[in-house]
Amino acid sequence: MARLSEHGIRLSSMSPSFLNSNSTSHTWPFSAVAELIDNASDPGVSAKQIWIDVVEEAGQRCLTFTDNGSGMTPNKLHKMLR
Predict the structure, then answer these.
(1) Is residue 69 within 8 Å of residue 45, measured between CB atoms?
(2) Is residue 58 included in any domain, yes or no?
(3) What domain of life (predicted)?
(4) What is the value of pTM for the model shown?
């Protein structure tokens, strides 16, 4: 069994080629934001609200996106990130 994060989610590893292809799929920052919002309204997710916040992580300001949709099981999340 894979190691678990502090929140009980199985940790995944990604190859550098996946990270590179994923990072270049959105050439404009707002297209990535639009996709996150679009994903929240996908069938089966049915989020009614989306929150966008700014947090500080390791001295850097970051955007966080949270919705009240149905979410993913830890297993589904692990498969998506694999």
Answers:
(1) yes
(2) yes
(3) Eukaryota
(4) 0.56
